[in-house]
Design a protein that fits this description.
The complex is a heterodimer. By secondary structure, chain A is mainly α. Chain A has helices spanning 19-47, 59-80, 82-112, 130-136, 139-153, 155-170, 176-188, 191-202, 209-216, 228-257, 260-268, 273-300, 305-310, 322-333, 336-365; strands at residues 114-115, 125-126. In chain A, strands 1-2 form a two-stranded antiparallel ribbon. In chain A, α6 (155-170) runs parallel beside α10 (228-257), α7 crosses α10 (228-257) and α8 (191-202) crosses α10 (228-257). The radius of gyration of chain A is 28 Å and the shape is flat. The two termini of chain A are 23 Å apart. The model of chain A has no long low-confidence stretch (mean pLDDT 85). Chain B is mainly α. Chain B is 70% helix and 0% strand. Chain B has 14 helices and no strands. Chain B is flat, with a radius of gyration of 26 Å. The model of chain B has no long low-confidence stretch (mean pLDDT 85). The chains are: A mainly alpha, B mainly alpha. Chains A and B meet through α3, α6, α7, α8 and α10 of A and α1, α4, α5, α6 and α7 of B.
Chain lengths: 369, 305
């Protein structure tokens, strides 16, 4: 994620932009913006039933927004010529992301500080910090956060397994392509299908093949989702199963980028294999490993699908992740206000945690001599 | 007459069994892990063709310890004797399948188009947007990856309700595009920065505009990267469950939601659940087998700098 020096394209251009053209560009931007604003005002008035215009939805505003966005992009060329053409490369994506993220986030802040149950008829009511107090006293939310710590810690064994597999795949073996495809497979599968395939059918206590295997190994009455620790462990295993290929492939790519000369030099110096690994391979793989682990943590923080479908948080919230907890808060109780508040708190925690991690990662991956 | 003049030393000869053991060990682990990866898929495929007693007896190998039946496909209306007959189950299934496909392909295409342009711009020109420079803008896009879906889900639920986008494929496509856009930008930035700028300089000297150079010169070179980005987006969006479960109901429901909504009744008809799961995973399995090197290329994009 670090910014490396890039070779930029240098072009010298001359644009003669006449005053009329400039006026046209400004007119396009401000004209469409006015239309958008007028529509927003009209629709809000309609919403608060001051006037009756008969709008059913906010669709007209959406269309006006599209119109404004198009005009804004187009006007860049008219106003700035060549410079505008360059801006056109990133402007659509910037507009898209801002309208899809920043605006809903502001909206979410509004919802978070209100009591809003979709199933109750009172609608939305501002309630200040009541949600915060409720959160403070909600043992299940804290429990879910604690579980997230466990789930994040599970990345360490995942990483070790992925590293070993990548080393094996990188050694001189036959049928490498077959193994690569086979190892990649779990990543392709939908978590929902996985939760049925493994969680519900293979781990089924009576007929599931894994239960049978476990029984022949001597555990007479296997119950995979009975006790807290085992249930959490099973969720970790299923999630690891789908995501180990991801880390493995990143590490494999890193391994293949290590120049062969280094290993040959070590060979000549008579280094034993484990020393070769610790002194050459592992330090060189550190940046790649950190990137892989960071991305893995980001994906892990979103963990929900498997939990929702296999245990729905049970037994007694022992397997709940924050996401699955909020999902049920909404699904079972339609509690939009409280759920959004929890989500916002989670977001703030994640941002703090990830900023800290990225700072630490930058320090760790810088080579020290 | 040739005569062997170089001989392996005693040490090297003694070394061989150890080396052989090492090899065997490596292959045993590799095969074991391959079984761990592939067995669930095998189990799902065979369960599709099993009747209840076969499931209970734990039969594994078709034609050897059980006789395959068309039960699973029949429950979806896809078995040979049902395929030409009207079937509401099939209609329902095909609708969900189609929804998933539209949502996944639509959003991946959109994300690749938007993301490629952005990544190209960021790798070629210097931008200033208030206090934000190029690296800040890149970080702004990449940081969207951190955003957990729950934060957006509930606001979007309310927002989409107001915009009449709830339970529509368009709404789903917009959200999915947002979730995969950072990944696409990351892969494509890596791709574009490996293409030398001299190419565009030559094209510009020859009289192409910058967009012309991008579309006719650079895009074809960056095509492998775009395919990689497209496939990875496809995987993520095809499998997406969380947003689909919250934002769709009867009309735009996708395949994962359909699978999830039927897990409750799995005790009764294993074969139909297996068939449904199989349908949900099969397209991506085929893609993985055929286009494996693009997937690996895409995922390795960030790894090697």
């Amino acid at each position: 994620m670090s910014g490396t020096e890039v070779d930029y394209l240098h072009i010298v251009t001359q644009d003669k932009i006449s005053d009329r053209r400039r006026d046209l560009g400004r007119l396009m931007i401000w004209g469409s913006a006015t239309i958008l604003l007028v529509l927003i005002v009209i629709q809000s008035l309609d919403q608060f039933s001051k006037f009756e215009f008969g709008f059913k939805t906010w669709r007209p505003t959406l269309y006006a927004y599209f119109f404004w966005a198009t005009c804004l992009c187009w006007a860049q060329i008219i106003l700035y010529g060549e410079q505008g053409r360059r801006r056109l490369f990133i402007l659509p994506a910037v507009l898209f992301v801002i309208s899809m993220v920043i605006f809903p986030l502001i909206f979410a802040l509004g919802i978070a500080f209100s009591s809003w149950n979709l199933s109750s008829p009172d609608g939305r009511q501002f309630n200040g910090f009541d949600n915060a107090i409720e959160m403070w006293n909600d043992p299940f939310y804290w429990n879910a956060l604690k579980n997230m710590v466990w789930y994040i810690l599970a990345i360490i064994p995942e990483y070790i397994i992925a590293f070993c597999l990548a080393l094996l795949l990188n050694s001189q073996i036959r049928a490498r392509k077959f193994f690569r495809v086979a190892f990649l497979m779990p990543l392709m599968l939908s978590p929902v299908a996985v939760s049925w395939m493994i969680g519900k059918s293979m781990l089924e206590i009576r007929f599931g093949p894994i239960s049978r295997l476990v029984r022949t190994l001597g555990w007479d009455n296997p119950s995979f989702f009975g006790s807290d620790e085992i249930a959490r462990f099973m969720i970790m295993v299923m999630d690891a199963w789908t995501f180990i290929p991801f880390m493995m492939i990143m590490i494999l790519a890193g391994l293949q980028a290590i120049p062969k000369e280094l290993h040959e030099a070590a060979e000549v110096d008579g280094a034993p294999p484990w020393k070769k690994f610790w002194e050459i391979t592992f330090p060189l793989m550190l940046p790649v490993s950190i990137t892989a682990i960071l991305i893995r943590i980001i994906f892990k923080l979103k963990l929900a699908d498997i939990i929702i479908n296999v245990t729905s948080g049970g037994p007694g919230g022992a397997t709940d992740s924050v996401t699955s907890f909020i999902y049920r808060e909404y699904r079972d109780r339609s509690n939009v206000g409280y759920g959004t508040f929890l989500a916002i708190v989670y977001l703030i925690l994640i941002v703090i945690f990830m900023t800290f991690l990225i700072k630490m990662a930058e320090r760790w991956s810088r080579p020290r001599y | 007459m040739t005569r062997q003049i170089f001989f392996d030393s005693k040490n090297d000869v003694a070394f061989r069994p150890k080396r052989f053991l090492e090899k065997t060990f490596i292959y045993v682990i590799l095969i074991l892990w391959a079984i761990i990866c592939l067995f669930p898929i095998y189990w799902t495929v065979t369960t599709t063709f099993k009747a209840a007693p076969d499931v209970m007896k734990g039969n594994l190998v078709p034609w050897w310890d059980f006789r395959p039946k068309w039960l699973g496909l029949k429950s979806l209306g896809l078995s040979p004797d049902r395929i030409f007959v009207e079937s509401t189950v099939r209609e329902e299934f095909l609708k969900r399948f189609y929804n998933s496909m539209i949502a996944a392909v639509g959003s991946s295409t959109l994300a690749v188009l938007l993301g490629s342009c952005t990544a190209y711009g960021l790798s070629r020109f210097k931008y200033r947007f208030g206090f934000m420079r190029n690296s800040d803008i890149s970080f702004f896009f990449l940081s969207q990856l951190i955003l957990p879906p729950v934060v957006l889900a509930l606001p979007f639920l309310v927002l989409y309700k107001e915009l009449a986008l709830l339970d529509t494929r368009v709404g789903l496509i917009a959200l999915y595009t947002l979730t995969v856009l950072p990944i696409v930008i990351w892969i494509m930035k890596d791709q574009f920065s490996s293409i030398p700028t001299e190419l565009e300089e030559a094209a510009l000297v020859d009289g192409l505009s910058i967009w012309g150079a991008f579309l006719t010169i650079i895009m074809p070179i960056a095509l492998p990267g775009m395919v990689a980005a497209f496939i990875i987006s496809l995987v993520l969006t095809w499998n997406e469950y969380f947003f689909a479960a919250l934002l769709t109901s009867s009309h735009a429901k996708t395949l994962p939601v359909m699978v999830a909504s039927q897990t409750g009744s799995q005790g009764i008809s294993w074969w139909s659940m297996a068939a449904l799961s199989l349908a949900a995973i099969l397209p991506l399995i085929i893609i993985a087998v055929i286009l494996e090197r693009y997937i690996i290329k895409g995922m390795a994009a960030g790894a090697v700098k």
